[in-house]
Amino acid sequence: MLTKKQIELLRFINERLKESGVPPSFDEMKDALDLRSKSGIHRLIIALEERGFIRRLPNRARALEVLRLPESSTPAGQTRKQRFEPSVIEGTLGRVRPIAQQAQEDDGRAFVSIPVMGRIAAGTPIAALQTRSHTIALPPDMLSAGEHYALEVRGDSMIEAGIFDADTVVIRRQDTAETGDIVVALIDDEEATLKRLRKRGASIALEAANPAYETRIFGPDRVQIQGKLVSLIRRY
Questions:
Q1: Of all helices (H) and strands (E), which one includes residue 54?
Q2: Contacts of 104 (CB under 8 A, 6+ apart)
Q3: Exposure of 86 by Cβ count < 10 A (0-12 exposed, 13-18 middle, 19+ buried)?
């Protein structure tokens, strides 16, 4: 899923390419999205590229190609028959109060029903988490005390921690964590990501488990802990 700003930028680039065949400049993109600096545009472009929505063409200045639009829209380059209504993950976990419910499996064992709250980026952050999409039943020994929710992982920034794209992570809902914990972090009340937490004095570092990704450092007022990783589910 994409943030609102990512969708706005993707739409702006796509419309400009359809109109003139030339992508907009960074200044034009910055003005169109009402951002204060071009660094924000650079971050959005990297996020769109990592998710396969755009491609930067080599050896050509400001050359961008739109590969696809969000699932709820038509493919890039086709005429749209109806208004573009992307599917955006919105809201924060602070507004969600998941309640685990007991479920019974065929063999009679008690399982716990955990809400799946959408997708989380193990890479460049994606939008904040949505309300539950469905539930999964887990054995109690995969959980700890407290409330839990699950997220579908998108991205490869945590592969050296054994977390891969398309895995499902089980998160215990909490707003504090210790250095070294893998957490769901909400950045600037807008973007959620799965990273290892490091405390550096008054700052918070969100550390990837993949050397291709840099550690990002924020002031404490920019990051909210939304939960801690307790289990992982993988389908082969």
A1: strand 54-56
A2: 110, 111
A3: middle
Tell me: the pLDDT tens digits for 41-64? 888 888 787 778 888 776 555 678
Is the distance from CB of 161 to CB of 182 less than 8 angstroms? yes
155: region left, alpha or beta (phi > 0 left; psi from -120 to 50 alpha) = left
Residues composing the chain: 236
Residues 228 and 182: their CA atoms lie apart, in Å, by 6
The SS3 call for residue 178 is coil
- Alpha carbons 159 and 205: distance in angstroms, whole number: 18
Residues classed as catalytic = 157, 195
pLDDT tens for residues 86-120?
333 333 343 333 333 344 444 445 688 888 888 88
